[in-house]
Design brief:
two-stranded parallel ribbon, 10% strand, single chain, globular
Length: 487
């Protein structure tokens, strides 16, 4: 496998010269702009906010935030801004606090038709130029109607609000490359082949069923789709193509999004969903075998590359909207997937363990963790791991302590089963719109926005991957200790 060194992105805003003719001038597109973001407190959203503040001269960033328990939107925003992801900005910018004041929290309720109150609605409609809809439920085992409510209806209500935004330039709907994973080849277009007469019929049908009937009907509705998450994302894309194609809107499809490569710091992660969660046993030295096809090459992109691609996509959508012809413009779709430098699952454990500081741990990782093409070995190991975890928890209980070993093994097993579909299949795709964006970046913007993931040196990337997981595990452990002390 050949590798090329990635060119690091700039960490500070740069003064740009005159706009280059025919190029995407991303810096100018965001200069003085008000940006609205949903899902801004999530994994991708945090990196997006940090990047916009640090590298672009935006006027304001509005985050639509739902209350969480007894914590309101403003407090959730402050907790986010106090987090480690913004340390680079705090340490590199003398005016960091001024930049933080550009971020405003607005309370939103996506369960209601009007997602914000009248006062905030007026502000949004008069001020916002760019919208990023990042919010989504990524639970693979979500009940189908709940997944539709979160991933389709919420987007529908946001875009209905976008209709009234008087200065709107671009809307980026963040979907997933796997929204059409029942196909072997995925093009950069909307597929509207929703079964059972479309989403409206499915929604009406589910409303009339009880919980047990919904579970049985869900499998029938999903068909070849592996879970409610990817199905609901597919439905959201079809809804956009049907109801909101008149907006300056585009669909951005990232694949598996993993920890950062370079920005805001190498290896940064704050959650353990998907592929990252399955790598935790490698980092902590626990044995775990997963069923899958070792030769399969997964599509993965670091979160900082993904965010950079989203930022450029908004500019491209805005520029497309300004063109005179054709009058009836198709909704642009961006398959943010790259295959030139992809590696097979067979190499994953070696790559992840390359970031372990102890050479013995690196050697043992190859024995303890692997992708197995036979189901029997992962099942046997899981049984042994569960037995060991039960014994450990019983011993802790004898001493009056609460063990969580069984819970951890169960969580990893559940995650492994949820993403098994993706470890056993490969896809081909078109990414012409993404390649076009890369070629149209102005020279100044190309220095701060490296979006060509074909150039990633994965061996260099994984040097920081294990450390990033270890750091997040420590942060979560400290958080649990602090909560325990407060109780």
């Amino acid at each position: 496998m050949q590798h090329t060194l990635n060119i690091s992105t700039a960490e500070t805003p740069m003064e740009t010269g005159p706009p280059e003719e025919g190029k995407l001038n991303v810096s100018e597109f965001y200069r003085g702009a008000t940006v609205l973001i949903t899902g801004g407190t999530g994994f991708i959203g945090k990196v997006l906010v940090e990047k916009l503040l640090r590298c672009f001269k935006v006027k304001k960033i509005i985050l639509l935030i739902r209350p969480k328990g007894n914590i309101g939107p403003s407090e959730r925003l402050q907790q986010m801004l106090d987090g480690p992801i913004f340390n680079t900005l705090r340490n590199s910018k003398a005016n960091a606090q001024h930049l933080f004041r550009k971020v405003v929290a607005m309370e939103a309720s996506f369960e209601q038709t009007d997602i914000v109150d009248d006062i905030n609605r007026t502000k949004i409609c008069n001020e916002v130029q760019i919208v990023f809809h990042v919010m989504a439920s990524i639970r693979f085992d979500e009940v189908l109607d709940d997944a539709i409510a979160m991933n389709v209806t919420s987007a529908q209500r946001l875009y209905a609000l976008s209709n009234a935004m008087t200065q709107l330039r671009a809307v980026v709907h963040v979907s997933t490359f796997y929204s059409n994973c029942n196909r072997e080849h995925i093009e950069e277009r909307i597929y509207d082949d929703i079964p059972f007469g479309g989403l409206d019929h499915i929604t009406l049908m589910l409303k009339k069923l009880d919980t047990r009937e919904k579970e049985r009907m869900t499998q029938l509705v999903l068909g070849e789709m592996p879970n409610s998450y990817v199905f609901s994302k597919k439905c959201a894309e079809a809804m956009i193509g049907r109801d909101f194609r008149h907006l300056p809107i585009g669909i951005f499809r990232p694949p598996i999004v993993i920890s950062s490569y370079r920005e805001p710091e190498p290896g940064w992660i704050d959650c353990f969903h998907g592929a990252t969660g399955l790598c935790v046993p490698v980092v902590v030295g626990k044995p775990m075998w997963y069923y899958g096809k070792p030769e399969v090459k997964p599509f993965m992109t670091p979160v900082d590359y993904t965010v950079a691609g989203m930022i450029v996509a908004a500019c491209d959508i805005g520029q497309r909207q300004c063109s005179i012809l054709p009058l009836e413009k198709p909704v642009p779709v961006y398959n943010y997937t790259f295959e030139k430098n992809a590696f097979p699952y067979a190499n994953l454990v070696e790559l992840v363990s390359s970031g372990l500081p102890n050479p013995v741990d690196r050697w043992l990782a190859g024995i303890k963790c692997r992708i197995s093409p036979w189901k029997v070995f992962p099942k046997i190991l899981l049984w042994l791991m569960t037995l060991q975890a039960r014994i450990a928890d019983e011993v802790l209980a004898w001493f009056g302590k609460r063990g969580s070993n069984v819970k951890i093994v169960s969580a990893i097993s559940t995650l492994a089963n949820a993403v098994e579909f993706f470890r056993c299949r490969m896809w081909t795709m078109d990414n012409g719109n993404v390649k076009r964006m890369i070629s149209l970046l102005s020279s100044d913007d190309a220095k701060r926005l490296d979006i060509d993931a074909d150039r990633i040196d994965w061996r260099d990337y994984y040097k920081s991957f294990a450390k990033g997981i270890a750091m997040e595990l420590m942060r979560k452990a400290r958080s649990r200790q602090q909560r325990a002390k407060r109780i």
